[in-house]
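Field guide to reading this record: the first block holds the primary sequence, the second block holds the structure written as discrete tokens, and the final block holds curator observations. Each block starts with its own label. This record concerns Mammalian cell entry related domain protein, catalogued under organism Desulfonatronospira thiodismutans ASO3-1.

BLOCK 1 — SEQUENCE
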Amino acid sequence: MAKTASVEIKVGIFVLIAIVLLGYLTTVLTRDRIITRDTYEIHAYFDNVTGLRTNSPVEIAGIDVGTVKDITLHENRARVTMAIRPDIDVHADSQATIRTRGVLGDKFVEVNPGSATEPTLEDGGVVSRGVQPTDLDQVMARIGDIADDISEVSRSVSNVFGGPEGEQDMREFFDNLREAAVHMNQIVQTNARGIEKIVANLQDFSGDLKTISETNKEGITHIVDNFSQASSQLNVSLEQLGEIMDTAQHGEGPVATLLEDRQMSEDMRRTAASLESLTRKLDEGEGTLGKLISEDDTGRKIDDALDGINEFLDRYDRFQTVVDFRSEYMASTGDMKSYLDLTLQPAEDRFYMLSLIDDPKGRTRTTETVERERVDGGQWTVTETEEEKTYKDRLKFSAQLAKRWNDFILRGGLIESTGGFGMDYFLWDERIKLYTDVFDLGADRPHVKSGANLYFLDNFYLTAGFDDYLSKHGDSSFFGGLGFYFTDEDLKYLMSSVPVPDGNF
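BLOCK 2 — STRUCTURE
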């Protein structure tokens, strides 16, 4: 009898513990609902609330503060009524956004409560703005617009450089450059002593450059600071890219919108059916593609196509790209002049160069005004005045075609937004480059700039020279600076070194 009572006591204790545990779990799981019974209501309006349901959570900074109480249609817009806890203040400049939890998760409403200086919304108040994610159709429409723009640009480039006329024009241009190079070579051979004097002058100029660098240490320090700022901005950009990848991994943003669209599953089923029909027609030899597969000469045609692709890839491998940036300190004004060059080299003996120039001087134009005046029927009086105007269009551009013969390069085209030409000559196994640019040929005196680059540490170089030394307005100036450049191989190495966050989308 005592043994039976002991068993009953144990069972009673077990049942009591189970009831207490069940009560605790019920309290924890329903605590939010119990708290939120004493709530106040606010409204938000959206153009589209697809996937949002009543009793969906309302969050602020990731914390549940209420639930969606009702969703109705009001004046052709979705009106979402939210029940908010009384201890949560939502202000007049608040914003409500429809979010997705996970890649294919449920919808919820995220509320930005607004500024504390704005009035607090009372029961029945309206959130100032409702935002929903971008629709898939809008994303696909934008992608289609981008593809159309790329096609139009490709067609324009083909019209300019393609066809027999474009090829003939290019051939004539390079023939002219070749003749000019021959004449230039003759000039160099007949002026060998002059070249020796130029080298001696460069040695003297190197001494002058040392003196200038010692007296202008602040300018050089400014250049180094610019490089440091550029490195910091690159780090910020990489951090922002990592945040975008992390957002996509958590099912937020445009990528998540693409994945959770219900229309996508239907489109995939239709695509699978179309592929099945296409495969059956190919097996039966129907259609143009089916006939090509069943014909005996298909292999030969494919071989010819592959040969063409290999030839194209071989040309692509020979194509080189160089990105160059340099800043020059102008001794006469104390300003910094910066250049960003993009060199496209389809072959070893020719290349195209595009440049953007930040010139603090802007452009100066001279206008002449002639006035005639006659007083009381007397003789005419003629007055002539000249006026110089400086236009602060600091951003200039260059577009040049270049041809190379051994160590000599001849360039021509647009230089700093004006017509001109230039020459380069390499010394000491291409560790030193001498160059001269002649442009702004429409002025009284052309703008002539000469200098030298000393290359070191693979990707860096020092530059120095004399700018606009034919100017009659006192604009001539010594300059010195630092530059760096990257080739295809450098860019590939940099891109492969950038960390990419892991994750499935």
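BLOCK 3 — OBSERVATIONS
The CA atoms of residues 325 and 340 lie 5 Å apart.
The chain has three domains: 40-133, 161-317, 318-497.
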